[in-house]
Specification:
- The protein is α+β, with helices and mostly antiparallel strands and 220 residues long.
- The protein has one domain: 3-Layer(aba) Sandwich (NADH Oxidase).
- 50% of the residues lie in helices and 12% in strands.
- Helix 2 packs antiparallel against helix 5 and helix 3 packs antiparallel against helix 4.
- The N and C termini lie far apart (48 Å).
- The relative contact order is 0.19.
- The site of flavin mononucleotide (FMN) has 10 residues, from strand 3.
């Protein structure tokens, strides 16, 4: 190997190591960001995020994830209202204080309508396997939901890699039918979650995590 080739090889190795560190830092440096600047995303940024979502792993590669993309205020408002109505009804039925319930409904409304981009991630069971017995059918549903969750995580990480903020909201899981009806989406799509995405207005809450060794069981 010539001296030039050796230097080049060394540079490439260093670049590879930097890239590895950057990917790992993207995993741990991501935070849930719940407030955004009132600035729209570039189309290229939205496409990168959708691309990352599409490339998530899925059970048998059946790709059951479907995405409802919302940027226009009337649609975000329809979604926030539909979810708010359901949240209010559920919480009042639980006997929660009406004032606190209204606070929560208002907060959820503001978070959804205040995000430049909202992606509702849904599960479509039609490309998955179908079993006659509940045990295997439940496992298949769980796998599809896990596949949607993997896609959601890809979306969060892509947003972070692009310098954007994002947060997962589980609300749609509690009112899937109301969500597809409000958004005029295919009725067999089953909303699992939504991601709010935008330019961060803050850095998010400081993270805390269990130490890895407290979560790991290693049988002797
Ligand atoms: C399944 C799931 C559901 C979540 N639902 C909500 C939610 O409804 N509202 C919210 O503000 N954050 C929600 N989050 C975000 C978590 O609160 C957040 O990931 C956690 O507090 C850790 O903070 P970090 O993401 O900044 O590391 C959810 C996260 C997951 C994985």
């Amino acid at each position: 190997m010539t001296q030039t080739a050796a230097v080049l090889e060394c540079d490439l190795q260093a670049a590879g190591a930097d890239l590895q560190r950057a990917v790992l830092a993207n995993l741990t440096g991501r935070r849930s960001i719940r407030r955004y600047l009132p600035r729209p995303l570039a189309e290229a940024e939205v496409e990168e995020i959708l691309h990352a979502i599409v490339w998530a792993p899925s059970a048998h590669n059946r790709q059951p994830v479907r995405v409802i993309r919302l940027e226009a205020m009337p649609w975000k408002t329809r979604l926030a209202q539909a979810m708010g109505e359901r949240l209010r009804a559920d919480r009042l039925r639980d006997g929660d204080c009406a004032e606190l319930v209204e606070q929560d409904v208002r907060r959820s409304f503001a978070r959804i309508t205040g995000a430049p981009l909202v992606l509702v991630l849904c599960m479509d069971m039609s490309p998955t396997d179908h079993y006659p017995d509940a045990r295997r059918q439940n496992a298949e549903r769980t796998m599809a939901a896990q596949s949607v969750a993997a896609a959601a995580q890809n979306g969060l990480l892509a947003a972070h890699a692009l310098g954007l903020g994002a947060c997962w909201m589980c609300g749609p899981l509690f009112c899937p039918q109301a969500v597809v009806e409000a958004l005029n989406a295919p009725r067999h799509w089953e909303p699992q979650l939504l991601l709010t995405i935008g330019h961060p207005a803050n850095g998010g809450k400081p993270p805390s995590r269990h130490a890895a060794e407290t979560m790991v069981w290693r049988p002797d």
